[in-house]
Amino acid sequence: MTKGLAARLPLDLLRERNLRRLFAAQAASVLGSSMMPIALSFAVLEHGGGASGVGLVLGAQTAPLIIFLLAGGVLADRWGRRITMIGSDLVRAAIEITVVVILLTVGMPLGGFVAFAAILSVAAAFFHPAFHGFVPEVVPEDRLQEANALGSTLNSIGSLLGPAVCGALVVWTDPAWVIAIDAGTFLASALFLAGVRTSSAKNAVPEGESFTEQLRHGWREFSSRTWLWSLLAYTSLACTFVLGPVMVLGIAFVGGKENGAAQWGTVMAAQGVGSLLGGLVGMRVRFRRPLLASVFCTFGLGAFAALLALRAPVYVLVVGSLLSGAGFALLHILWTSSLQADVPSDAMSRVSAYDGVASVLSMTVGYWWAAPAAAEFGAAPLLWFGAVWTVASAAVMVTLPQIRRSAPRADKDANSGGVAPEPRETSTAH
């Protein structure tokens, strides 16, 4: 399936000033954001929220994403993606600075933490669709996969370093100062983004077109591509039926009461390492059929579920977790590159917002249903169901001609790494 290895890692992308600033903004934002769940949890505990309060606050970050991601996608296409991202960063920084002052002076009740988490999530819902739409404005089309792989690698590194740095900081300082550091990373991100210049500074949005009309146009762009909605449904169901149960039930299958948490932490750390490896593969390997390759990227997760059901030893579970992390990282790279190659630029943020909504919703449902289903049918049978589902659903996906097609735009560039667009009219409406 591969066309071969690239001659080098794509670090030469960073020689271009716009790309260097874009990836610096991403690195700063990811590092800070990966510290927030831990810092926020300890802040809630220190102010008397308890474990149930922690769950309530972290849960408050999910619902706004489901509700506001689509609005964020529409407005990013309408206002301009760079401006939307800068605005999101500045709003989040201002909110966090305000909360830090409150925490260090008068303290905050649980309701305040819930409101803080929800408002922060609303602001984030405007950033993510804008970012996915902005990358193709800055990166040459024939290097989108490499750029997305580099971005995925930065995400993985930040996700590994952030919790470790946060854990060390919380030991000797107030969690409020970690939140202050996160605010600083948002300010840094906004500063880097302000220095990015593109040829399409403003999106071509027809005057007088309503929000609802633009939302409907985004849906038409999304639903008209069989490869897009079918692959999104496939990965979303994998999150619901496989990843959710693995994350909820996994710790019960690892170790005993005394060392189970530590061993599960080791297994989860391997998933982060796997994400790094998946990013490196995305940098180096060109897939002739990227969508078909995406289907098989979920097999690592299916194998991980099967290993848990077998109660495999920890060192074996580490391998399964590593494969799962690598597969999902590569899946994200191939998916994002295909999306950017096939969807019109003026609708990119709206279409990517549907992806975001499906991802958040599928994981939420997966976390919610796993424990009750395991209580009814047993944890091991549920994990086996996930493993079987992975293979069966992949068998259905590979029958779709749109999934088996070659890399896109082969007529324009034989080395291009996107997805050949299905027949469609040129996008003129929003």
UniProtKB/TrEMBL annotation:
Membrane spanning residue stretches: 21-45, 51-76, 97-127, 177-196, 226-255, 261-283, 290-308, 314-335, 347-370, 382-400
Subcellular localization(s) per the UniProt record: Cell membrane
Membrane topology: Multi-pass membrane protein
Record carries keyword ATP-binding: no
SUPFAM superfamilies listed in its UniProt record: MFS general substrate transporter
Keyword set, alphabetical order: Cell membrane, Membrane, Transmembrane, Transmembrane helix
Superkingdom: Bacteria
Ranges for region Disordered: 408-430
Protein name in UniProt: MFS transporter
Domain Major facilitator superfamily (MFS) profile span(s) in chain numbering: 1-404
Matches recorded under Pfam families: MFS_1 (PF07690)
Keyword Membrane tagged: yes
Natural source organism: Streptomyces bobili
